[in-house]
């Protein structure tokens, strides 16, 4: 090709002294390697090793991207198809699982439900109101309610409980994380709470699942698709129930209920008699799921404000974030 044709096409031929030209000459590759490895100013051996150790200890892989959701999972769930994949629902308390996808649990053929807490706070306020004399008695009551609720739904999941006190899940973050890594190892789909600052244990579930999947990914194991559901949050200084904070990258799917499904779901919620004064907001509940967004757990949830800062609880958002950051530091995340 002539130089004229090169100029017309917008192509500029390299000069004989350009890097491209030198790279093709004999010995140029060795010269380039020698240049790259040429020693700089002399540095004591101990200092070089100290610098290497600092870089190694301070390096941490980023939190993984949310894996691609299982193809068609939400569409199949919305159409009430049978779900053969291994689904693990990770929730904070007994009754949260019904709010997540109660109307479709009887369509899930290989279902596990994990409760991070037994639903019994250490302060005993709710237990005394119910005439119970110990937190353990209250926890056992909540457990019986779970079994009855699953029967009402016509679901037959494996039920696992980590037995931590209500409102204190983040205080047991390392133990919860270790257990989640074990229990999520064979999961294909995980459903858990949205990070929305509605309840400290809800936020802990969202964080724990993400860190557990990070560990699985680091071990070279297959990572399940993760979906989330909302319960309650503060938006613009007002309480919002069962609605996501908008995220265009994570479109939601509403699981519409027939009259029979709504009756079955309401019957399951009614089995949680200990929560009769709490679940009033769920009377017209719509089940919503979406792929879990990539939250930065070192930052507040998208809503900003915390519902649980308004109850006078010991576990405030500031305290939760202190423990969450410690867990993230421990995991190098």
From TrEMBL:
Gene3D superfamilies the UniProt entry points to: LmbE-like (3.40.50.10320)
Species this protein is from: Rubellimicrobium roseum
GO molecular function, one term: hydrolase activity, acting on carbon-nitrogen (but not peptide) bonds, in linear amides
Annotated Polar residues bias: 15-27
SUPFAM superfamilies xrefs: LmbE-like
Matches recorded under Pfam families: PIG-L
Protein name: PIG-L family deacetylase
Transmembrane segments: none
Residue span of region Disordered: 1-43
InterPro entries noted in UniProt: GlcNAc_PI_deacetylase-related (IPR003737), LmbE-like_dom_sf (IPR024078)
């Amino acid at each position: 090709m002539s130089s004229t044709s090169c100029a017309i096409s917008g192509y500029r031929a390299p000069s004989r002294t350009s890097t491209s030209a030198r790279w093709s000459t004999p010995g140029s590759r060795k010269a380039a390697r020698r240049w790259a490895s040429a020693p700089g100013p002399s540095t004591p051996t101990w200092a070089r090793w100290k610098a290497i150790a600092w870089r190694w200890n301070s390096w941490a892989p980023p939190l993984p991207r949310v894996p691609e959701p299982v193809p068609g999972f939400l569409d199949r769930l919305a159409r009430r198809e049978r779900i053969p994949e291994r689904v693990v629902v990770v929730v904070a308390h007994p009754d949260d699982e019904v709010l997540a996808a109660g109307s479709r649990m009887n369509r899930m053929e290989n279902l596990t439900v994990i409760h991070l807490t037994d639903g019994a706070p250490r302060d005993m306020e709710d237990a005394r109101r119910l005439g119970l004399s110990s937190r353990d008695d209250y926890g056992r009551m909540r457990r019986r309610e779970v079994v009855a609720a699953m029967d009402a739904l016509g679901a037959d999941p494996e039920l696992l409980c980590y037995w931590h006190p209500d409102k204190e899940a983040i205080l047991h973050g390392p133990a919860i994380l270790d257990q989640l890594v074990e229990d999520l190892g064979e999961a294909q789909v995980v459903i858990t709470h949205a990070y929305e600052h509605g309840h400290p244990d809800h936020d802990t579930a969202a964080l724990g699942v993400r860190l557990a999947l990070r560990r699985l990914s680091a071990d070279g194991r297959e990572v399940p698709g993760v979906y989330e559901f909302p319960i309650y949050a503060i938006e613009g200084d007002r309480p919002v129930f069962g609605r996501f904070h908008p995220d265009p990258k994570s479109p939601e799917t509403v699981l519409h209920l027939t009259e029979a499904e709504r009756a079955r779901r309401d019957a399951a919620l009614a089995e949680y008699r200990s929560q009769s004064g709490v679940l009033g907001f769920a009377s017209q509940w719509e089940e919503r799921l979406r792929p879990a967004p990539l939250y930065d757990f070192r930052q507040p949830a998208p809503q900003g404000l915390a519902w649980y800062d308004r109850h006078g609880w010991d576990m405030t958002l500031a305290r939760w974030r202190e423990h969450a950051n410690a867990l993230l530091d421990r995991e190098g995340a």
